[in-house]
Amino acid sequence: MDEDEIVPATTQRESTAEPSRTTTRQVPGVPAPIRTKLSDSEFWVDSTQTKLNLQNLRTQFAGEGRLTIAQAIWILKAATLLLSKEDNLLVLPSPIIVCGDIHGQFYDLLQLLDGNGDPATTRYLFLGDYVDRGYFSTECLLYLYACKISYPETFFMLRGNHECRRLTEYFTFKQESLFKYSEEFYEEAVTSFCALPLAAVMNKQFLCVHGGISPHLATPEDINEIDRFREPPTHGLMCDLLWADPSEEFGTEETLEFFVHNHTRGCSYYYTYNACCAFLAKNKLLSIIRAHEAQDVGYKMYKEVASTGFPSLITLFSAPNYLDVYNNKAAVLKYENNVTEMLVGVLEVCSPDELLPDRREIVKSKIRAVAKMNRNYRLLREESETISELKSKLTDQRLPYGTLSSGAEGIRNAIKGFEDARCSDIDNEKIPLSRDEDELSIQDTVFGVIQPAVESRKRSTIPLIDFPDEDDSMTFSSAPENFEDEDEGTDLGVGSGSHSV
């Protein structure tokens, strides 16, 4: 046996014989990845080469196939050209589906689109973070861009904090781009990130943004004054739109300040309930819709504005079982016709009998229809990969005593659960240091606070050899009726802890 060959721990214990080699698939029910690239006739709808064949692209990506480098770069350049013509601040009508973070989870993206409407007939707004952390970032980006190219007037994408060179070099997108395509592909992707709009006003009532508001933001129109065609800075309005978070005590803060330094991120701010209410009142808006943080049940509705009775802030997260260890649900938000029906399409992830009795007074507006997403997404990994995954999430890179002897199930249980995953992944919340900063610090110019350089950081590493190819399923259920709200500070969901990404 080759000394460098990796053999699962169980194989080493049970047998010392050389593993058998075969040219046949060991699990015939699992289709082999597509090895051929699309021809030009398959890439385009017809010989005019003016319209992409979305169905062929979907089939190719779903089968773990790839495009030619020329085809992939064409999509990136065409999307960049389209996005560059849009304002920093989009103004969008209803009806519309608003989606949170995707993070390279392509099969979940397909389920999202299948469950909420064909992009050909449904208006979509994505709030950013399409890449990094997941296995299929290139597929997500290319397919979303292909939808944008095909339906430029009804398919919209905003920039997230991960759509930049700094984070994609630190996390997984650059590595994946080089593995599947080329350096040129990665550079074109980074260029396309700079063309993504930064925010949207939906139906003249909702500010939609990846992170949140800023002390530099007086009106939504201020966003149009930003030069967005650049790498996001570590401070200022552009940074805050991508990186800011609601305060950890949102709605119960003791401070009277509107903004406090965001120590979790290492840049930007926490904005308070009072900051949100003041911004909404000044601009005659109803609520802020954002993404940027994983939610246990896929979404969170924060304390209501006293004058409207509507949540001041809504967080959406659309990547279920984030990193394959969070066990979180996913959600999207559907807005149509009027404010009352805005809650109709929140993709509910708890069935009525899962809601605790003391939570039944949470929602003031009647919910007419609720979609239920059941995540059945299991990855086929060798024990060695699972162990590497667990070690990458532990601060000291050491497995707890007895973990290996507990077998595969014990190893998986060691990293199971939303709260456990949240705690073990905490280091990846901070903005990574760039090459230029190295051991220096990132300074917040508003507060004059210098954040110490991170001594030890954990990079999320994802092997690019074995990609999962199982699909997910989605089912729908009817909605609970006549929920009323008397508790301003609670969120819409059970056990809805949050985690930053």
UniProtKB/TrEMBL annotation:
Substrates-to-products reaction catalysed: O-phospho-L-seryl-[protein] + H2O = L-seryl-[protein] + phosphate; O-phospho-L-threonyl-[protein] + H2O = L-threonyl-[protein] + phosphate
Location of region: Disordered: 1-30, 464-501
Keywords: Calmodulin-binding, Hydrolase, Iron, Metal-binding, Protein phosphatase, Zinc
Source domain of life: Eukaryota
Compositional bias of kind Gly residues: 492-501
Cofactors that this protein relies on: Zn(2+); Fe(3+)
Pfam family, one: Metallophos
Listed GO biological process terms: calcineurin-mediated signaling
E.C. numbers: 3.1.3.16
Molecular function as annotated in GO: calmodulin binding; calmodulin-dependent protein phosphatase activity; metal ion binding
Quaternary structure and interacting proteins, as annotated: Composed of two components (A and B), the A component is the catalytic subunit and the B component confers calcium sensitivity.
Family statement: Belongs to the PPP phosphatase family. PP-2B subfamily.
Protein name per the record: Serine/threonine-protein phosphatase
Native source organism of the sequence: Synchytrium microbalum
